[in-house]
Amino acid sequence: MLIVLTGIDGAGKSTAARALRESAEEEGTDVLVLSNHAGRRRMSLLSARFGVQLPPRLADTVETSIRVTNVLISHARARRFQGLVVMDRHLHCQLALREANGLPRGWLLPRLLEALPAPDVVAHFDVDPELAHQRIQARGTDEESLEDLSAFRAAYRSLPEYPGFAEIDAGAPPAEVLARVKRAAAVDQKAAA
């Protein structure tokens, strides 16, 4: 089974991926957690350090290259793995970033989404941007503005793929978030059977 986690920064995707791994391992299920980052955190730190902001199209080109490479590697690894595969982020994330930045979808990412194995569940972590902003500030490893987080949230909701996502209230306590993701995966398994 392949579960993909999407959502704005600070929604708790990585925390949930770790919790899913721990829960699956406790249940005796083999699990592989794969991260499909785009280098945004590192680029934002470098931008802040050197006071240089990349133009949106150049930043998107760098991020898309990194994200596509990571997604392709993750799918190659997932193909050889028997068990639960959890992908923290996917190409949907890059499409939402493009939308939030006023950039076109392009042709590459939608075609790759069609060509790659479809996830059994895309669990979208929906969270109030203010709560996400507080979480980002608390972890202190990167910076996102409240305005950017709000635009990113709206961009996810505007994706044509969004109606097929399992929306998870990521403002709930971590145990409840985990339970909701597991329920979404269980419902999908029943529907596939």
From TrEMBL:
Name one matching Pfam family: Thymidylate_kin
GO BP annotation list: dTDP biosynthetic process; dTTP biosynthetic process; dUDP biosynthetic process
- Thymidylate kinase-like domain residues: 7-178
Question: Which molecular function GO terms apply here?
Answer: ATP binding; dTMP kinase activity
Q: Which Gene3D superfamilies match?
A: P-loop containing nucleotide triphosphate hydrolases (3.40.50.300)
PANTHER family per UniProt = THYMIDYLATE KINASE, UMP-CMP KINASE 2, MITOCHONDRIAL
Family assignment?
Belongs to the thymidylate kinase family.
Q: What is this protein called?
A: Thymidylate kinase
Q: Which organism is it from?
A: Arthrobacter cupressi
What taxonomic ancestry is recorded? Bacteria, Bacillati, Actinomycetota, Actinomycetes, Micrococcales
